[in-house]
Write the structure tokens for this entry.
Amino acid sequence: MGMLDKAEISRRMCPVIFLLDTSGSMAGAPLGAVNAAMDGVLPELISMNNDNSDVEIEIAVLAFETGTQWVTGSGLVKPESYAWNDLNVGGGTSMGAAFRELEKVLSVSHGFMNRASGSVAPVLFLLTDGEPTDNYQDGLNALRDNNWYKVAAKVAIGYGQSNDAVLREFTGNPETVLHTNDPKDLKNMIRFVTITSSMVASTGKGVDTQNNAAGTAADPNDTTNAVAAALKTAPPALSGATDPDEEW
């Protein structure tokens, strides 16, 4: 076994988990912006992995509408080994079902968080353009009992008619909830929030994952608060106007 192999084994994992609304109201420019942003952000995550010898980002994407689907498969994947496939719209906005799926995969025993070499706090990214059409509160309550959720960097973007109060419930910090009505700005926000939160989470500060498989922190909100500070320091550049000729 060479030195590079040993270095790879010792790297901790930084999970970045996306919950993306693909309900019918996302049809057209909104979902086009999401697809463009996700396709564009993967090379940047690959670059971050290449520059960080201590932590490796892995991703998972859950699309939710009337139902839910892990579009990246049944586990975390390396961004360099995943080719983005455009999402399609469906029916309602089953955010509660998405929260329940997220709680399952944050399990240490049978979820995505069982890697032996350890993990830093995950990034949990939620995007929606509407009101939940199912009982989101039960799913959120289950999440709140999950230790990985407690220490995660929780961020959200609301688009159009989204209920941002629900997004603030999810993140626990109003400063990590952004909103736009412009599809071009939506694309920029997804990129900015993903990169910023991933950079913060990949430092692993404030979370003890080596001695506790579920992760602990002096303040469970440390990572989300750090993301909030980073978002305030360098907010995303927004266009302020929709380009009617923009194609998605």
